[in-house]
Amino acid sequence: MRVVVSVPTAVLAAALLLGGCAARGDTPSPAGTPTPATASGTGSAGPFSATDVAWLQLNVAMIERLLPVLDLVPDRSADPAWRGLAARVEEDHRSALARSRRLLSDAGASATNPHAGHDMPGMVTAEELAALRKSTGRSFHLLVARHLRAHLTQTVRVAAAAQQSGAHPVVTALAAAAVQEGIDVLAQLDQLDQLDRLDPDHPPGQRERVARAATRPTHHLVLPAPHRTHI
Amino acid sequence: MERAASNLGTRHRLRLTMAIGALLTLLGAYVVSTIDRADAAPGINVIRVAEFPADCAFSHRLPDDPIIFPGLPGASHMHSFFGSRATNAHTTLPDLVNSATTCNPRVDVSSYWVPTLYRNNVPVEPEIVTFYYLGEGVRDDVVARTQPLPLGLRIVAGNARATGPADSIARWSCLHAGHVPPSKNFVNCPAGTMLESYLDFPQCWNGRDLDSPDHQSHLAYPVNQVCPASHPVPVPKLRQVLRYPVNGDPAQFRLASGPGYTMHGDFFNAWPAAEMARRVNDCIRPVIKCGHDGRPL
Predict the structure, then answer these.
(1) Is residue B230 exposed (0-12), middle (13-18) or buried (19+ Cβ within 10 Å)?
(2) Together in a domain, B149 and B262
(3) Are residues B13 and B106 in the same domain?
(4) Do both B34 and B88 map to the same domain?
(5) Three-class secondary structure of residue B125 per DSSP
(6) A112–B214: do the CB atoms touch at under 8 Å?
(7) Does some domain include residue B271?
(8) Considering only CB atoms, which residues of chain B are within 8 Å of chain A?
(9) B111 within some domain
(10) ipTM at complex level
(11) What domain range is B32 assigned to?
């Protein structure tokens, strides 16, 4: 009898304790569920600022706009360097997308994206995507390079601002990682772009070296240890 | 009906006065018979439009938006700023309060911004920029209890994400060419006229929030000329009117946010509270057209 009583009491106590710290979004809500959207939610490492939320929402919108471009590369390019670079960027971006969405959920921010369907700097437009779908070979590479460069340049610009002005340590760490990744990929893009412009006279083996570099795992995807479990 | 009630109120009030009251009754009867609400009118020559204006010339351009992208310079499409000269991505209310302004009156240090208009990819700024604060679009009794716009209010009107005219409240027309029908997208204005943009901000406040996550839902438009229960506080309707020194083929034009129907306006209220309150009290509630100084014209 005593056991029967004590179990619900313990459950209740645990629920109250959990409720106390989970009330403001430690429990991620299912994606797509509109939550009371304020910028005052607190994750496990402190409150989210308006800058944090704005950057996360923009990051989600920008990544979602780039993914269809990257998806075209395996079908429209036989070049291992390009395929490798696209795969690397896609993997990094999908991971950043998942983290950004989870952080937005932690922040209690709206799942409705205020930037969806809106052409912002660095975003590929519907017309540009249609043009990409019609191109192949070198012209396809040049177009992808242009769009990827515009996207990454804007990503680095805005993520650097978020790194500086953001409040939540996990958000600023994610922004720092986006800056570093963007800079690295832009450098590789410069090399690839040069090859595409010089093609087919570049020295033998150079293309392969760039391809290997493009697929090399990157160190900065690992975030600072204290925050790693939360994202 | 309203006139009768108003007349009664006037008489009731005048009954409390003495000799001079009798004179005023005669005058009042004349005024009541010619205008809607004589009890609030300080004189008979006022223009019965609830309005006070701020004319705020172009100040600067930046790809910043302190409402949508606070703390993130460069995150936005290009904006043209009017009013406060200080606005950038990091701007907060104290920055505005202490800033210089392009507005007439100078007391208005608010910030107003819109997506930049481009003609053949060259930015064009409006030459005539007026922000009207109006008491219209709601019933007279609602106008009569208009509250001041709260200091620090941030609000975005229009739809930057509009994908067509159907989900837009933009209005483009031609100054001095009324025969050209207004449109939600750019219109072809005759030579010698100016392309103009009208945008009305919502005028019903939830009485609580200076901003909201979508930067719109703390205010609402009236329904059947009344503020809805969710947004019960009537505030002046801000009407943004921009006149651009361009005309002709609309194909030359684009906004930084896209086609003409993506026109939107951002407003960050920094009117000194007393100046705003005085204008609401002297111009909006009694339905009197005021000048830049907030005095009857």
Answers:
(1) exposed
(2) yes
(3) no
(4) no
(5) coil
(6) yes
(7) yes
(8) 63, 68-77, 89-90, 160-161, 163, 212-215, 257-258
(9) yes
(10) 0.79
(11) 2-40
Reported as a single tens digit per residue, the pLDDT across B62-73 is 999 999 999 999
Number of domains making up chain B: 2
Q: Are residues B237 and B267 in the same domain?
A: yes
- Quick check: A115 contacting B, CB < 8 Å? yes
Biggest alpha carbon–alpha carbon distance for chain B: 70
Domain extent listing, chain A? 31-228
- CATH code for the domain defined by A31-228: 1.20.1260.10
Contact (Cβ atoms closer than 8 angstroms) between residue B68 and residue B215: yes
Q: What is the pLDDT of residue A110?
A: 74
CB count in 10 Å sphere of residue B261: 25
Question: What does the block give as tokens for B64?
Answer: 């910043």
Is residue B297 assigned to a domain? no
Same domain as B152, residue B20: no
Q: Is A122 on the interface with B (CB under 8 A)?
A: no
Q: How many helices (H) and strands (E) does chain A have?
A: 8, 2
Cα B26–chain centre separation: 37
| B107 residue type, one letter | V
Model pTM? 0.78
pLDDT score of A82: 92
Same domain, B97 and B10: no
B190: in domain: yes
Cα gap B83→B109, rounded to integer Å:
6
For the record, the structure tokens of A175 come out as 């922004």
Q: Summarize pLDDT for A99-132 with one digit per residue, the tens.
A: 999 999 999 987 566 666 667 889 998 889 999 9
Q: Report d(CA B221, CA B207) in Å as an integer.
A: 14
Phi, psi of B248 (to 5 degrees): 90, -160
- B35 and B56 together in one domain: no
Phi first, then psi: give them for residue B239, nearest 5 degrees.
-115, 120
Asked if the Cβ–Cβ distance from A54 to B71 is below 8 Å, we say yes
